[in-house]
Specification:
This protein has about 260 residues and is mainly alpha-helical. It has a single domain, classed as Cytochrome c oxidase, subunit III, four-helix bundle (Four Helix Bundle (Hemerythrin (Met), subunit A)), CATH 1.20.120. The chain is built from 10 helices and no strands. The chain is elongated, with a radius of gyration of 29 Å.
Length: about 260
């Protein structure tokens, strides 16, 4: 048949594509498909935006969670200010300030890590993730030292809570105004909120460190060297949230009514 058509000078032409634009888009989608591209997303960009939106939604719920504890703290601080000021004076400002500097530095390292992932610098990404992990572990080490001190002083709320340092501070060499016994008992509320707020912050930090080990292993393997940076970007948001929460906790808990001792 083809030979007969050729002998008459006629040739067959392929039928024109009635939808050339859709065909081109479909071919483009097939071209950009990567191993991490999930089938229920049309494009890689859509998947990235969905992941980012999910992380922001999660952080909003975390803000509401910590916001409830911040509200409770401010309410009780207004009711029992002398007890809160006296209890706050038992916290170490140098240790709290050191931890603040450590977290700020870790946030800077994490920001460098996000940049390294975006420009596909694998070795730099691995180094910055390791540094972020080390700073996080250092923060937890200092926080453990603070918790241990409160345990030794019997400042953990409960049946063994000791208010003698607040009722008779001079006997312990503390230059603070003594509290009445009933007001001294209210220092338990401060320490309950202190352990609740810093404890939940520490839990988030521990989870973050666990994720950092996983991300570091994947970065070393080269998973984020092909332009796939969404996990690093989303984790960076989570880590910066941890930093911001502490930047509120430090002044609220450590710097109440601080004044020079005479």
């Amino acid at each position: 048949m083809d030979n007969a058509l050729a002998s008459t000078g006629l040739t067959t032409q392929p039928a024109p594509d009635p939808h050339p634009h859709e065909t081109a888009v479909h071919a483009e989608h097939e071209h950009v498909a990567l191993p991490q591209h999930r089938h229920h997303f049309e494009t890689e960009e859509q998947q990235r935006e969905a992941g980012s939106f999910g992380m922001w939604l999660f952080l909003v719920t975390e803000i509401m969670f910590f916001g409830g504890m911040f509200f409770a703290y401010l309410l009780y601080r207004n009711w029992y200010y002398p007890a809160f000021a006296a209890a706050s004076s038992q916290l170490s400002v140098p240790l709290g300030g050191t931890n603040t500097a450590i977290l700020i530095t870790s946030g800077f390292c994490m920001a460098l890590g996000v940049w390294a992932a975006e420009v596909r610098r694998r070795k730099m990404l691995v180094v910055t993730l390791i540094l972020t992990t080390l700073f996080g572990l250092a923060f937890l080490g200092i926080k453990y030292d603070e918790y241990h001190e409160k345990y030794e002083l019997h400042h953990i709320p409960g049946n063994n809570f000791n208010v003698s340092q607040f009722v008779n501070p001079a006997a312990y060499g503390i230059k603070e105004e003594p509290l009445a016994p009933d007001m001294a008992q209210k220092t338990q509320i401060f320490f309950f909120l202190y352990f609740a707020m810093t404890g939940m912050h520490a839990v988030h930090l521990i989870i973050g460190i666990g994720l950092l080990f996983w991300l570091t292993w994947r970065a070393h393997r080269g998973d984020f060297s092909s332009g796939y940076v969404a996990p690093i970007e989303n984790f960076g948001l989570y880590w910066h949230f941890i930093d911001i929460v502490w930047l509120f906790l430090f002044p609220l808990l450590y710097l109440i009514n601080r004044h020079p001792l005479h």
